[in-house]
Every structure is written in structure tokens, then in C-alpha cells.
Design goal:
Order of helices and strands: EEEEHHEEHHEE
Strand content: 25-35%
Number of helices: 4
Largest sheet: 6 strands, antiparallel
Helix content: 25-40%
CATH topology of the largest domain: Phosphorylase Kinase, domain 1
CATH architecture of the largest domain: 2-Layer Sandwich
Radius of gyration: 16 Å
Number of strands: 8
Low-confidence stretches: 133-159
Oligomer: single chain
Length: 159
Amino acid sequence: MPQPGQPQAADPSIGTRLGRYQITALLGRGGMGVVYQAEDSLLKRKVAIKLLPLALAQDADSLRRFRHEAQLAARLNHPNVVTIYEVGQQDAACYIAMELVSGGSAQDILHKRGPFKWQSTVLKGHTGAVSSLAFSRDGATLVSGGADRTMRLWPMSRP
């Protein structure tokens, strides 16, 4: 697996543009998309771009869920939730532009530090995630992508 934040010549998206965003590096891959670091040419800042895979972008239900995820996150304003800047589409490419957060994934930290003590995880990790739910206007449940994955927010009735 490539190192997060580093330019990846083998990835065909590196160096391409999506709207005003120039993709500069691969950050990670997941079931619902690929996340890249990009440069916002208008505001001159680094952002994260989540790109929906083409096969999923052509599926109406996956596209609806992708956009719904962005809408839910955009309703929140909390230090433990990234800020959504834009949801866009260029040709068949669907993307979400969001705040770029430094520090690596939970998986990166686990590889560097080893397993967390359960007390530390409960008190530090989940406290922040749970406190961010209190700021949801519609009520939400927390859905984790696994112990080393990102956490996602869904409304009480999942799409």
C-alpha cells in the first residue's frame, strides 16, 4: 500500500482536475470511494477529495447514498467532523471536496504504535465521535467501518 499523502505515479487520477481541484496524492481507498489530496485552485488550500468509483457512480442507489452522506456531514459543525466544501460531478466522476485532516488514519496509527489500551480508546476516541452526534439536527446513529476504518453518520432511518 502506498504511503498516504505521497504522490502516486501509478494512480491515473494523480495530476488530473475535478472542477477547481488538482489531485496531487492518494490518501486511501475504501468500499465507497477513493480519497485523494488535492489543491483548491480558487482558494489556494489543500483539500481531501472523495471520488466515487465509476461503477458505483453509474448505480443510482450508490450515487444517492454518496450524495446523502455528503448532505448529512454538511449539516454538522463540530471539531470531530470534517467540513464539506462541495459535492460535484465532472463528466461521470462524482466527488466530495472536504477539509483535509492531517495525522493519518487509525490504521496508520495502529501500525506505528500498536494496539490501543481499551481505556484510552473509549475515553479519547469514542468520546469525540459520540459528542459530535449531539450536534446533528436530525438525530443520527454512528456506523463504524471497522476498528481501523473511518466512522460514518447515518440518520435514524438508513437510506
